[in-house]
User: Fold this.
Amino acid sequence: KLARMQDELAALPEGYITPNRPVHVKDFSEHYRIMSADSDFRFSEEFEELKHVGRDQACSFANLPCNRPKNRFTNILPYDHSRFKLQPVDDDDGSDYINANYMPGHNSPREFIVTQGPLHSTREEFWRMCWESNSRAIVMLTRCFEKGREKCDQYWPVDRVAMFYGDIKVQLIIDTHYHDWSISEFMVSRNCESRIMRHFHFTTWPDFGVPEPPQSLVRFVRAFRDVIGTDMRPIIVHCSAGVGRSGTFIALDRILQHIHKSDYVDIFGIVFAMRKERVFMVQTETAVCVHPSVSAGGAGGQGAPAGR
Ligand SMILES: CCc1ccc(NS(=O)(=O)O)cc1
Assistant:
């Protein structure tokens, strides 16, 4: 199957940006060596090909005057075609809007909902999205403050006193702290119905940087996936802008699941597909390269560095 895919790709016209570039797992170390040579020259070339993917798509709802204040960054806007739509409230213009997009994962085409770190003024919309999407899991990849700058609102209760966000009640049940992340369980209630939601918070990934050691991110993704399994309800993922760290997390989750039962990996194809759904997904030449020995539950070697 891989040989057939590679023959078909080789037959494509010059300059055609192929959405798929599979690499055999056994060839991955050599592939990484070639791509990272000369200060990541070929990784940079390949990343540049992704620059315009998806950028011809409309963001008309994000740009409505009533919605502009709901965007944390003016240049990080959700495409109309893949945006999450809240249930409209009465005739309130813009009441269906949140800066969030559905995103494909290894298990389904809408496995994730990727969003910006909530603003204080959009925390109610965030919890409405959690409820109306029927999600049971939130992955947070930023701290609320980094280097003195607000990256995300403190949108969840930090003690056992219940908090209300609009008509949604959130109460902390239990939180467990590890070196690089914490996992909390919340009872989320609305209109006499209650659900348990889990909050997976990775706390040691600096914005525009790399987790140290990179292996800590692989361990976090594995811990998350061990809990979630293949639950088909949407998983909400956010960082601050909802593109760099969020895109890298989803890419790594897909890679680790894929190479458990396949002999090739297509990192370019994964990022290409994400960029069709949300702008700038995986924001730098993030060579999220996991050495096969690591991904197969091996001795946890260093693997190739994640992030650039
Ligand atoms: C310029 C807007 C912007 C801010 C922060 C980030 N990083 S993040 O997507 O990992 O939060 C990406 C883009």
In short: The chain has a mean pLDDT of 90.
